[in-house]
Amino acid sequence: MEFEGSKKHKMEEAVMDERIYVALGREPAKNKSNLAWVLDNCQGCKICILLVHRPAQMIPVLGTKFDAATVDEELVRAYREKQKAKTDKILDEYLRICLRKGVQAEKLCVEMNSIEKGILQTISENRVRKFIMGAASDNHYSTKMEDLRSKKAIFVCQHASVTCHIRFICKGYLIHTREARMDEVRALSALLSDFQRLVSPHSDQESGVSKRNSEEEEEERASRTSSSRSASTFSYFGGSEASSSVSVLEEKSNHPSPPSLPCTGMGLGMITFLINSTKLWQRLAIQNHKHGQ
C-alpha cells in the first residue's frame, strides 16, 4: 500500500511539473492578447515561452541590404548577433508579463530558418505534451472564425507528434484544438512490446544456429584442405589414390548450389514478428469495431 501511494504521489508530481509550451512572435504588442489568454487559462502550470529565431538572410550595408552569401562573414556574424540579442530582450519582456501575473515561466530560443519546422523540432526533442500557438494574425480574426488561417498553424497541426495536445488561439480567443491521439500511441506501444517479446528469444536461437553453421563450415573447409594436401602427397609419390581424391574434390566444387529462396536473409524472428504484427492489428481492428457498435 505504501508503494502504491508513493507511486501515485510521484505521478501527480510529474503531472504538476509538466510544462505548457507557448509559441510567440517577435512583436510583443501583437502577441500580448494570446499570452494573456494563456495566463488566464493555465493558472498553476509552468510555462515555457518559445520564440523561433530566424537568422537574417539580408544584411544591411551602407543603407542597402545584400544577400548574406555575398557579404563579408564578419559583418554577417556581427549583424546576426545583434538580431539574436534583440530576440532575447523580447523573450525577457514576455517573462516580465508572466511575472506580473505571478506565473512561473521560462524562455526558449530556437534558431532555424523555418518557424514551423523549429516548432516541430521543439515538440519532438522536448517530448512536449501541451502546446499553444497562434491560429492567424490578429487582423484575420472574426467572431465566426473556427478554422486555422495561418500556414504555419496548419503545418504544425498536420505534422506535430500525435501525443501533443495543441491549442490554437487568435486575438485572445481559442479557435481550434487538436487533441492528442493516445489510442494510436497505445497501439504502437503494444506493438513494440510484442516485437521485443518475439524477437528476443529467437535472436538467441538464431545466433546459436549461425554459430553452429559457421563451425560446420570451418570443419568442412579444414577437411577439404587436408584432403587436398593428402591428394598432393599421393600424387608426389605416384600413388593411385591421388587421382581418385582429386576427382572427388572436383565433383564437389563443380556441383551447383541450390537456388536461393525469396526470403533468404530474413531471420526467423523477423518473419514471426511480421505474422504476429498482422494478427495484433486484426485484433485491434475487431476491438475498435465492437466498441463502435
UniProtKB/TrEMBL annotation:
Renumbered to this chain, region (Disordered) spans 202-235
Give coiled-coil spans as residue ranges.
none
Compositional bias of type Low complexity: which residue ranges?
224-233
The domain of life is: Eukaryota
Protein name (database record): RING-type E3 ubiquitin transferase
Q: Which organism is it from?
A: Camelina sativa
> Which terms are listed as keywords in the entry?
Ubl conjugation pathway
Show the stretches that span the lipid bilayer.
none
List the catalysed reactions: S-ubiquitinyl-[E2 ubiquitin-conjugating enzyme]-L-cysteine + [acceptor protein]-L-lysine = [E2 ubiquitin-conjugating enzyme]-L-cysteine + N(6)-ubiquitinyl-[acceptor protein]-L-lysine
List the EC numbers from the record: 2.3.2.27
Q: What's its top-level EC category? A: transferase
> InterPro entries per the record?
Rossmann-like_a/b/a_fold, U-box_ubiquitin_ligases
Q: Does the keyword section mention Cytoplasm?
A: no
**Database matches in PANTHER family:** OS02G0152300 PROTEIN (PTHR45647), U-BOX DOMAIN-CONTAINING PROTEIN 33 (PTHR45647:SF100)
